Amino acid sequence: MRIALLDGYNLMHRSRFGAKADNGIIYTFFRSLRPLIAELKPDKIYFVLEGVPLHRQLLDSEYKANRRLEPDTPKWHEMVEFRRQKNIIVDLLQHLPVTLARHPEMECDDTIATLVDIHKDDECTVASNDTDFIQLLSLPNVQLFNPIKKIYTEGTTFDYVAWKALRGDKTDNVPSVGGMTDKAAEKLLSNPEKLESFLSIGSNRDDFNRNLQLIRLKIAKLDELSLKSPVKNNAELRRRFTDLKFFSMTNDTAWNKYTETFDSVY
Fold this sequence. Notes:
Layout: E1 2-7, H1 8-14, H2 24-40, E2 44-48, H3 54-59, H4 74-93, E3 99-102, H5 108-118, E4 123-127, E5 142-146, E6 151-152, H6 160-167, H7 182-189, H8 192-199, H9 204-215, E7 226-228, H10 234-243, H11 247-250, H12 252-262
Parallel strand pairs: 1-2, 1-4, 2-3, 4-5
Antiparallel strand pairs: 3-7, 5-6
């Protein structure tokens, strides 16, 4: 069975770019969803949402602190509008054969890793341009599709988690260890003796071990996940799209093509 694991916030956030019309994020998202599913040809689709990264926040209170926004600023208002359209997207997805998945105390990345573990006997494709998923490529049943570049991401020849723990992750406010750069981290991992020598300096080992825990994906139990099965209803989805004035998607030719893409998904 072919499983598509869609990084929900990643896909919705990329729909913000160039979406200037009313409800433009919703329109761009659903316009890009059909060709993505046509590419992956899955038997089952999970759309995975974010939970609170509790175990990472307990480990480091500054984790993702760089994403906090001051109220009543332009970026704050932009995110308010994004969340409004995000809620509509999630609501509309119930009319397609898409299972909504979320863990209340774990990030989307961890939930996807958990679903990969659950579907270890199936072909799993993660759709995201988030490079954190490269660590899943060590598994024989996993592919990573970049929906922006429209290519399948290759794995690394080195330990990706250790490499990222050394060089940090500015996006998530994870600091590098000892000012490590990308190339220096890769070079260090190729020489165990030099790596050990580097980790023996000052707080480097503690910083490295902390980063490993922040970056490594965590596997949850199936019964900890919130899974919302779809109630497929093409007619209702078409009506909602019409109300939103998405006419280029609801004319007979476009709509038939849209629904045919999802016909083989359950």
